[in-house]
Design goal:
The protein is mostly helical. It has six helices and no strands. Helix content is 74%, strand content 0%.
Length: 180
């Protein structure tokens, strides 16, 4: 959720400034009084700042959508806000959508890293002998599978992962008596 919150907070802070500048334009172009313009703009700006700090709660995302609708509707007072409101609504959607995907990917990579760490600790605790098959030798298929799991994207040296997998697969298919 950290990436999602960061992206959404960045969008809200940018909206804070856009709403402030739109308030300045609305004072000159609309028939509304200065007090009305700054009351509405001030509430919207305050909501942007408050929401940027409250994004840890799911309801804050919903309130953010309400703010986006209000920003689009402000186009009736300052016409350019139709465009800017739609642009910020798109940024809001992208912040939520891609933020969730990035956070999910980070969680998957953290789980893979933890599994690799546990595997390394288990091997170290077993004296580094690895798996032993019925003949008393290391099980090459298990070693190849573990090498493939550890070298998935996100691990150190991700660019060499395909070569490591190819070497591990070749070792798994090579007979034990073949020294290569």
């Amino acid at each position: 959720m950290r990436t999602l919150r960061t992206l959404c907070a960045s969008t809200l802070i940018c909206e804070f400034f856009v709403i402030g500048f739109a308030g300045l334009v609305a004072m000159k172009l609309s028939d509304l009084s200065m007090g009305t313009v700054w009351t509405v703009s001030g509430i919207a700006m305050g909501l942007c700042v408050l929401l940027s700090g409250m994004l840890r709660w799911p309801w804050a995302l919903q309130v953010g959508w309400v703010l986006q609708i209000g920003l689009v509707l402000s186009g009736f007072v300052v016409p350019v806000m139709f465009f800017l409101g739609l642009a910020f609504a798109g940024l809001w959607w992208a912040s939520i959508h891609y933020g969730r995907h990035i956070d999910e990917a980070k969680a998957r990579f953290a789980a893979m890293d933890e599994a690799a760490r546990e595997l390394a600790e288990a091997r170290a605790a077993a004296g580094g002998t690895g798996n032993v098959d019925e003949a008393g030798g290391a099980d090459a298929a298990d070693d190849a599978r573990e090498a493939r799991e550890v070298s998935e994207p996100g691990a150190a040296g991700g660019a060499t992962a395909p070569r490591q997998r190819a070497a591990a697969d070749a070792d798994a298919t090579r007979p034990a008596s073949d020294p290569a």
